[in-house]
Design a protein that fits this description.
This protein is of the alpha+beta class. The chain contains 3 helices and 7 strands, in the order ααββαβββββ. Strands 1, 2, 3, 4, 5, 6 and 7 form a 7-stranded mixed β-sheet that branches. α1 runs antiparallel to α2 and α2 packs across α3. It is globular, with a radius of gyration of 13 Å. The N and C termini lie far apart (about 40 Å).
Length: about 120
């Protein structure tokens, strides 16, 4: 049985990882080799592409942190959750997103489908 909350916490931690090597390791542990990530701004496949998207988000929002925005829901091989991005400890996030995660049989991420619900103007 999958612990969807633990998976989402590891996912958010990967998005917060600033060290290039540690981030690459986190991505490799979370995603299958041919795993994908798609949102309105990116569509990539493979560990290197996913790590590059994460690095790009960190460059776009330096010093910001990702946090879970509420409870994680999941069933079978699918999980969904809201996330927030903003300065650490901020009362209001700058960006709010919603991700749907499809899992492979081994419990790693096969694909992420991301949606942006709130973005800066």
């Amino acid at each position: 049985m999958t612990d969807y909350t633990a998976l989402a916490e590891r996912y958010v931690a990967a998005w917060n990882e600033r060290d290039t090597e540690a981030r690459a390791k986190a991505v490799a542990e979370l995603w299958t080799e041919d795993g994908g990530y798609t949102d309105p701004l990116a569509a990539v496949t493979g560990h290197d592409g996913i790590a590059a998207v994460i690095a790009g988000a960190q460059e776009m929002f330096p010093g910001f942190v990702f946090t879970l925005g509420g409870p994680v829901d999941g069933h079978h091989d699918t999980a969904r959750f809201t996330w927030h991005l903003g300065p650490e400890g901020a009362a209001e996030p700058v960006v709010i997103g919603f991700d749907v995660v499809a899992l492979a049989e081994d419990g790693r991420i096969r694909n992420v489908y991301g949606f942006l619900d709130k973005v800066p103007a």
